Each structure stands twice: as C-alpha cells, then as structure tokens.
C-alpha cells in the first residue's frame, strides 16, 4: 500500500465512510503508537511504515481513489477510551506516515515562509527597569539584586538564588515575559518552578517575605510549587486568585480564550473569583467563562492535557477550529486569517510543537482544516 492509498483511507475515516474493518485497522494501529509521534531514525521509520502498510493491505478492503462525499463530522467521547477519534488519529498517524526525514529542504521552506515553531524566548525586566533578552544573554550570572543572584543555566533556565537573607529585597519586583513564539522555564528563589507558555508573563518579587508568596500572571503558566505550610503561594490573574501550599497546577488566563481555567494535577488549590471560591482536587478544573461571573468546577478526563504544551505538544480535547488556530497562532507567532465560515467540527489529538510550518499545514488539512501559508500568515480556506 502506498501513502496515497493510506491518505485515502484516512479521508474515509474522517468522513465516516470507512467500513468497520477499515476503522478497526486504523484504530488498532493508533493504539499501538498510543497517539504519540514516535522518535526513530530513518531506517526504523521506513521499516515501521512498510510493516503497517502491509498490515493494512491484508486487513482492509481496497480503498477507493475517488474523494468520498462530504458528511458532518462529529466526535464521540466513547471512542476516546478505546483509541481516540479521527482528529487525534490524523494528527498523530498522518504525521507519522507522511513526514519526511529532516533535511535542508525543510529548512529552506521555513526560511521561505518565514514561519518557524517557537522556542526558549523571553525577556526579563529587573526591578530597576533594565531588560534582558534571555535567549541572547550569555550563560551564567545575569544580575545581582540586594541579596539575590540571577543565573541563566546552560539548559536555558532562569534560576534565582538567595545569597543573603538580610540583604534580600522583597519589593524588588521582576517580570519575565514570553512573546508569541516563545516559552520559558524559571525557578524562583523559594525553589518553585514555573513554565511560561507563549504570549505570557509572570511578575514576582526577587525574594518572598511576609505571610505569603504572591505572583501575578497573564497568559498561561504551569507551576510546581515548593511546599511551605507557613507561607501559602498565591497566583493572581486578571479575574482569579489561586492559593496553594505546595502543588502542581496549570493556569490558562489568555484574554482571547472563552474561559479562564485552572487545572490541578497534584495536591490541592483554592480558586477565588468575584466573591466565589472552589477547592480543587487532582483531576479537577475551575473555570470562569469570559462573559459570565459564575465560577464553576468539573472533572477533566485527562488533566495532563492541560500541560501538553509544556511537554512539547499541542493537545486538543473537543476543540473547535478557532481554538486550535489560537494555539497555533501563539506558538508560530503568525496571524490567522479566515476566508469564509469555519467548519463545524471538534478535534481531539496531538501535534508536536516542533514540526515545520509545512508539516503543520499538511496535518491540519488531513484533519479537515484546509490552510495555506502566505508570508507570515496562515490562511484557513473552506473546502
């Protein structure tokens, strides 16, 4: 079976015209790779592709080469427990089967399109107003502020060290800001670790004093808070206040999202907003809709999905096309333009955040979001 036939098979799956045997063949293989994009060398990739093509060829009926009739796409949650439904299948399997080994052609395409995936890009603003572009700064000590030294490690982390308690200035506020197309990992002076997603910021004191450890964020951040029962850690957003003693959680507070969401992975947190308060347990999420004042709480099927961005993936859970494209726009630092109405679909699945612009557009087209690249824009075109 060649890649064209497999492509036709995936299109049939998308349009719900595949036979039961065809669906089972695709889902069985998706289960075998667990929805992930395997890391392997060229020889292993070629061998695995050939193996799968052989399996599919002997277990499914011949695939028609004509395009199937369009039909309404719908995601069924019950499928997720077994294998993951179509969008996830394509975002993983299509990349796995149609990607080419890294070579100069991909780099030339990225240069031509001027669209690249994001990386470790951030700006540190010190208490005195000095700004340091972290991806351009040399490794080692960046600054020393009254009892605090700030070091950039070889791995690209920003680490705050307390040198002398007496000289530490709790009012020396610092801010780390990531642009669109950037992310950053920093370790605060209390050993709390923070990962900032693209288009985000965190403002914090160089040293914590008083009865609490308070920081402010915009955009999205994942926290692994150092435990200190005597001094709660408080995260302020534009709408909420999250209080913890020591825990792992993610806060999505982008202004262009439909809701602000706090997802708990470990420990316990309290979320307050507009005079309301909820207490979260692991696997729960608190959300505040953009145009509503009610703070709600619910169980999430996969709490790790909230931090997929930190682990190198886009992960979509019943996301509509606009939600998919918002994430992509931030990470690739591109404008997204829509020509006509968006398809009425929902998507589940993963895309590696390191793929080229060309591979990204190909994967989106497999899943039903037809795109083209023009200058520094992704244009979404109805089929």
UniProtKB/TrEMBL annotation:
Residue span(s) of domain Protein FecR C-terminal: 313-380
Q: Which InterPro entries match?
A: FecR, FecR_C, Ferrdict_sens_TM
The record's Pfam families line, in alphabetical order, gives: FecR (PF04773), FecR_C (PF16344)
One example GO MF annotation: sigma factor antagonist activity
The yes or no answer to whether the keyword Cell inner membrane is present is: no
Would the keyword Transmembrane turn up in this protein's UniProt record?
yes
Report the protein name in the record.
FecR family protein
Organism, by scientific name, is Pedobacter africanus
Taxonomic lineage from the root: Bacteria, Pseudomonadati, Bacteroidota, Sphingobacteriia, Sphingobacteriales
């Amino acid at each position: 079976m060649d890649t064209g036939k497999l492509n036709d098979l995936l299109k049939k799956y998308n349009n719900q015209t595949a036979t039961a045997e065809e669906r089972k063949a695709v889902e069985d293989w998706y289960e075998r790779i667990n929805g992930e994009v395997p890391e392997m060398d060229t020889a292993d990739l070629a061998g695995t592709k050939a193996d799968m093509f052989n399996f599919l060829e002997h277990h499914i009926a011949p695939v028609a080469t004509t395009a199937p009739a369009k039909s309404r796409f719908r995601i069924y949650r019950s499928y997720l427990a077994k294998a993951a439904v179509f969008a996830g299948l394509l975002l993983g399997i299509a990349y796995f089967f149609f990607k080419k080994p890294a070579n100069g052609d991909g780099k030339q395409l990225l240069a031509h399109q001027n669209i690249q995936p994001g990386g470790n890009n951030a700006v540190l603003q010190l208490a005195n107003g000095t700004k340091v572009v972290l991806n351009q700064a040399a490794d080692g000590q960046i600054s020393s502020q009254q009892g605090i030294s700030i070091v950039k490690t070889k791995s690209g982390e920003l680490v705050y060290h307390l040198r002398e308690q007496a000289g530490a200035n709790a009012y020396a506020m610092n801010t780390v800001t990531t642009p669109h197309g950037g992310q950053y990992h920093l370790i605060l002076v209390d050993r709390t670790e923070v990962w900032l997603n693209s288009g985000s910021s965190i403002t914090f004191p160089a040293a914590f004093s008083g009865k609490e450890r308070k920081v402010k964020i915009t955009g999205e951040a994942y926290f692994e808070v150092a435990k200190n029962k005597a001094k709660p850690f408080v995260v302020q957003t534009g709408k909420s206040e999250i209080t913890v003693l020591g825990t792992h959680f993610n806060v999505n507070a982008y202004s262009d999202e439909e809701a602000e969401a706090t997802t708990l992975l470990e420990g316990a947190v309290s979320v307050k907003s507009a005079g309301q308060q909820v207490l979260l347990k692991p696997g729960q999420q608190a959300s505040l809709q953009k145009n509503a004042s009610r703070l709600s709480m619910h169980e999430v099927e996969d709490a790790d999905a909230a931090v997929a961005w930190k682990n190198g993936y886009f992960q979509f859970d019943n996301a509509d096309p606009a939600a998919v494209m918002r994430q992509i726009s931030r990470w690739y630092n591109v404008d997204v333009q829509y020509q006509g109405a968006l398809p009425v679909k929902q998507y589940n699945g993963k895309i590696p955040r390191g793929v080229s612009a060309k591979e990204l557009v190909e994967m989106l087209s497999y899943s039903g979001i037809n795109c083209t690249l023009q200058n520094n824009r992704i244009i979404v075109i109805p089929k």
